[in-house]
Amino acid sequence: MTLRSYVISRILLTIPMILILLTMVFLVIRVLPGDPVLLHFEKNVDPDVIQAMRVRLGLDKPLWIQYFDYLFGLFRGDMGESMQDYSSIGQQIFSAFPATLELAIFSMIIATALGVVLGVQASKAYNRPQDHVIRIFGIVTYALPVFFLGMILQMSLGLGLHLLPVGQRFNPAMQTPVGLSIGSLHFSSGLYTIDSVLEGNMYKLVESLRYLCLPSLTLGLVLSGVFIRLTRSNMFETLRLDFVTAARARGLKENKVTYSYALRNAFLPVLTMMGLQFAALLGGAILTETTFSWPGLGRYIVDRINFRDYTAIQGAIIVFGIFVSVVSLVVDLLYAYLDPRIRL
Amino acid sequence: MVLIGIIIVILVMAGVVGYYLTMPTGPAVKDTLVMGTTDSVESCLDPARAYDYFGFEITQSLGSALVDYRPGATGSIDDIVPALATNWTVSSDGLVWTFSLRHGVMYDDGTEFNATHVKYTFDRGIGIEDPDGAFVGVGYGDIIQSVTVVDKYTVRFNLKIPFAAFLSLMAFQASFIVDPKYAPMHGTSWNISDVVVYTEGNARASNPMGLGPYTLKNWTRTAGKDYQMRLEANPNYWNASAGLPKTKNLIIKFYADSTVLALAIQAQEIDVAFRQLGPTDINNMKTNANLHVWEGTGAFIQYLCLQEKYAPFNETKIRQAIGAAINRSTLVNTVFLGQAQKLYSMIPIGMGGHTDAFLNLGDPNYTRTTELLAEFGYNTTNKLTFTLWYETSGHYPQSAQQAQVLKSSLEASGVITVDLQGADWPAYRGKRQNEEMPAYILGWYPDYIDPDDYIYPFVHSSGGSWIHHNYDNPQMDQLIEWARGNTSATARNSLYSQIQNLMVTDAPIIPLYQGAAYAVTKLKVKGVYLDITQVWRHWLVYVEQ
To answer: How far apart are CA A174 and CA A170, in angstroms?
Structure first.
């Protein structure tokens, strides 16, 4: 199978996957107790008014008609309106997604850098004090509840040392990064770090990074524990293989043997885990977002569940499902790149 | 690899140091105040739809009403002061209210305000009839027959019923005057689609007002929740000659929960933290030498509802027995750490007409509980057993803890067993609607500041139907309707005293506590007034030099 046909077939497979996911979510959330119609008025009990709201929200129709109405809307690119405030679901989700994406990217960078570097060091110092320290570090960071770790960092680096802000995404005294503007053309990614660079504003870049520090460090530390253990165990086995011994015997420098040869072979399981974790982060790290008041997708989904906002929940799950598919595809492609023995 | 990592770290540190050495100075503190809150506008800022606490808080800063409450108000009619109206009269039958308007008032765009704008606002709110909004929730259409323009600066309200709380209603946020230019009619008659909703990237189009101390400069929402608001002083504000607003620029930051809000004020990242800080955080901050904790009268109450549709609470004496077994001291001290007040009436403490009526039942009085239940065969070996429901999604403060304390309090009588059941707010609402819960805890923020708003929606057979506790007493209805229509304060107080006594006799609802209002600020922040109106007066708050 060629690369192009493989990618096309994976994309096509996404469609039935999303349909199955949507159908399950559509049915499950409607089984939950609680009527979104009633949440619109505290005191009004007029049956006509309640029925009118039910009609307005499209909940008066039979379930199967609601399902296909929603489906056909999706094909037209319309994710519907929020059942709580009637605003566009698409606009709501994609206003939250850049924040989630930015947090996910920086968290993964920290987690991967820490996890891989410490995992390699631990494998090379196997069963020696350095290995023990790194293993304990990995266990502790992984075992710590993310909100607890976040609070520790907030109180120490934010409240105690006043080095970093304790929450939110950007300095309220400054205008948020606007991205690149050339004449009437305008491009903004929604990621404040990138938009700051596009805008050419160093202050905004540093402010973006300052606000990103604590939440991404929190998530990154927690995730690094998994990567440390995976990298360590895989590297330990790989470093004892014959080709590594042969590379050393040929006089290659130890760093080249470790990182260019051994790590490349040991990295595949780590890559799988990275993909899984990144996809999960794209769904929103609710605890981290709440701890740091980070305006991302995780908080959005939880809020919408509390309002029984069916269209919003469905929309968010679909978007999440699509991104999981994309990430999964990218991971598979990276597999083939890292290991030529793997054929798509 | 390690060397590369070290180089990266050095570069980042150099960048950070360089940033701090060269960063431009921020805005002058005196001109800008930063406030943090966990609240959020639930729907929009249009008075025709907005029916949430924070929507009202912003409405008050962007608009004005005919009348207002003076800072430090206790809810008395004497606390109502002129705003857009300079004086008013009411006919002897209480059906006609005539307001003389202030001359020379301008909208933020320079348009002159007059009586047509008042008529427009109320015709609009009643005409749109948004079921989400306060016009329907409070029942403006049941109270106001018509609004007429007498002349350019005189407007008349013709009421369907005499309504003693009409002035309070005029001070209520839903009565704030809109700007027709930003709240137009799109068809030939008012329609729900005429409601002004949030418009991404266009703060002015998201705000239909313009007579308030501030204009909305910027409003950012992310994922349907407020992220940040910026307000700027309105140069055309009718009360600018009084030096208002005191702070030119206001930035409001929205936090996900009280913990990070508490950290933000302690880290001095914000100047003011208001709603909702937890009791533990408030107590901790009282000992913080760098912060000032402001405390004021709250208007939020919580109460226990008893379902009269079926046994056991179809029996009056059993309901009285429950009322007698409530230990409010434990509730207030254990759950709220003393930051609430024991409440013995549905009318809050400090409001005209309040009496400690439910103290007659006891607090607690287990002897009375035992005697009352004994009449129905309940005793220590045959206990009255029922399920107490509470909500679990944070709609009310410390719901689970409250329920646990109430359970302990009731079971301490020795003749009651309570099973606890929780449900998140949507499920809780559904169960209330379906009348599935024998006993359930609810809360209430006032619409307008008048005893009527604490009585009519709860124990009037029509007004209280939304509670679904199935209480219906014609004598109560009559007393409430007399109190609603009587403009004599003395007469009303007497009627509300009778109403509260009757509530103790019938015990359909058991008041539990009244919350206090708290704000935490930096030491130099002044001008904070926390009173029973629950109005946060942004325009009075400033940072002292």
So the answer is: 8
